[in-house]
């Protein structure tokens, strides 16, 4: 049975002061998952250790964003991204992820580390719209590589038009949301 068929549409949340943490090897297999990760995703440690991190991949997460993420961390850089993940029971949860490579004493990448925090709900409105545009393009194609190839130019064109990197775009959305909130608070709304 397809994992896409058993989605519930229910969103799981976690506390503002909680951080979801996981570590993977170079191939993306989970080597560590903290208690918050396990609780929110609904897995036991035994069920996730040694498994591909994409065990929690939600079908509403555009492939091109993961490609951008992997290309960035494999090049030795960190990345921040909004991600929708799938729980074991078909629920979902949104995160603001900070993914980094881990280096050995020789400067070689030996693993990856991800901290995920509660996302800014205001920014999610914009992210959901962007991701829907990307998904609409991806769903015109059957092959996952074709899906990624079709949606990646949309992201790259957006970044080029704004003169920003992906990370700059993500933080500009946060800055814009914070500015809107401050204006509303100032006028007493």
Q: Which key terms come to mind for this protein?
A:
189 residues; alpha+beta; 5-stranded antiparallel sheet; 6 helices; 5 strands; 20% strand; globular
Description:
Strands 2-1-5-4-3 form a five-stranded antiparallel sheet. The model has no long low-confidence stretch (mean pLDDT 92). The protein has 189 residues and is α+β, with helices and mostly antiparallel strands. β1 (20-24) and β2 (30-33) form a beta hairpin. The protein has helices at residues 35-41, 45-48, 63-74, 121-138, 144-162, 166-187, and strands at 20-24, 30-33, 79-86, 92-103, 109-117. The chain has a single domain, classed as Beta-Lactamase, CATH 3.30.450.20. The termini are far apart. The longest helix is centred in the C-terminal third of the chain and has 22 residues, at 166-187.
The secondary-structure class comes to alpha+beta
Give the end-to-end Cα distance, rounded to a whole number of Å: 48 Å
Shape summary: globular
Order of helices and strands: EEHHHEEEHHH
Quaternary arrangement of the chains shown? Answer: single chain
Largest sheet entry? 5 strands, antiparallel
């Amino acid at each position: 049975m397809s994992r896409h068929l058993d989605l519930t549409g229910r969103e799981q949340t976690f506390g503002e002061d909680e951080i979801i943490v996981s570590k993977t090897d170079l191939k993306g297999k989970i080597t560590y998952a903290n208690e918050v990760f396990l609780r929110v995703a609904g897995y036991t440690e035994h069920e996730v250790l040694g498994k591909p991190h994409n065990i929690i991949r939600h079908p509403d997460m555009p492939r091109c964003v993961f490609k951008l993420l992997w290309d960035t961390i494999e090049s030795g850089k960190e990345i921040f991204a909004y991600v929708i993940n799938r729980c074991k029971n078909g629920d979902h949860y949104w995160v603001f992820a900070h993914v980094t490579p881990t280096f050995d004493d020789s400067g070689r990448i030996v693993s990856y580390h991800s901290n995920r925090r509660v996302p800014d709900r205001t920014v999610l409105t914009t992210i959901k719209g962007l991701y829907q545009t990307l998904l609409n393009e991806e769903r015109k194609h059957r092959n996952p590589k074709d899906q990624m190839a079709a949606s990646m130019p949309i992201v790259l064109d957006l970044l080029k038009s704004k003169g920003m990197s992906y990370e700059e775009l993500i933080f500009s959305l946060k800055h814009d949301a914070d500015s809107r909130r401050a204006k509303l608070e100032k006028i007493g709304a």
